[in-house]
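User: When convenient, might I ask for sequence and structure tokens for a protein?

AI:
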Amino acid sequence: MNLFPQIILKNIASLLGCAIFFVLISCDEDLAEINKNRNSNFPSTVINNANIIQRDSGMIKLRATAPLIEKYEFIDSPYIVARKGINILFYDKKKPNLPGKISAKYAKFNDKKKFYEAKGNVKIISNENQMFAMQSVYWDQMKKVMYTKDTVYVTDKDGSTLVGANGMTAKDDFSEYTFYNNSGDINAQKIPEKGR
């Protein structure tokens, strides 16, 4: 029996195995380097002509429509964006048949921070039929507050108007709000006795 050819075959097999191992290891390092430089800021979900309904305990809380919604979730701070505008109907338990409305040319929602922003001809109509018009508004859902530094135009259901030249801060249900540097034509009967 000739051992010399068997030893050579075993050495060749060992060398081939080591070569494959090192090639695979070097490929993994190259892929890791390539993936490190790859852009991960791309939408994971794209919805065209979106019609979204959000329910809570069987009741509709929100109904939103948008031509385009994109969800970015492969980044440190995931968000959802509606670049081509959005229209939202929001329902209150106190008046479920009279929804409030929000419309804007652009909207963004940060999922981790529970923070919304709307920009471009923002109009909010409360279920009390008050209309708020501004160029941008921000909603901190955790603190339940909405605010803007833009000029806010408010029209009440009786036609009276109010202008907050330096913005406003409001509870997210519009039960309370504060305007900064305001002026306008408002019914004095609506002002509480303490504020007169």
User: Anything to note?
Assistant: The helical segments are 3-36.
